[in-house]
TrEMBL record:
The name this protein goes by in its record: Protein translocase subunit SecE
InterPro entries hit by this protein: SecE_bac (IPR005807), SecE_sf (IPR038379), Translocase_SecE/Sec61-g (IPR001901)
Any one GO CC term of the record: plasma membrane
Residue spans crossing the bilayer: 29-53
Organism for this UniProt entry: Sphingomonas kyeonggiensis
Cellular localization per UniProt: Cell membrane; Membrane
Family per similarity comment: Belongs to the SecE/SEC61-gamma family.
The organism's taxonomic lineage, starting at the top: Bacteria, Pseudomonadati, Pseudomonadota, Alphaproteobacteria, Sphingomonadales
Functional summary from the UniProt entry: Essential subunit of the Sec protein translocation channel SecYEG. Clamps together the 2 halves of SecY. May contact the channel plug during translocation.
Keyword terms, alphabetized: Cell membrane, Membrane, Protein transport, Translocation, Transmembrane, Transmembrane helix, Transport
Amino acid sequence: MAKTSPTEFVKQVQTEARKIVWPSSRETIMTGVMVMIMTTLLGVFFLGVDSIFDFIVNSLLRLAQ
């Protein structure tokens, strides 16, 4: 593998950085809203699953007494 000089490396980095396409503000907001919705739904789902398991474990413990 050929070694790259520091100046050539910086030029390559700048060339690659020009290729970056940043999302628009609308895309960023929509993505943020979708993340909040999905984390809320997952939180509610896992709360439900945890409540069911809590009920089952507590029922089994009451039977064992």
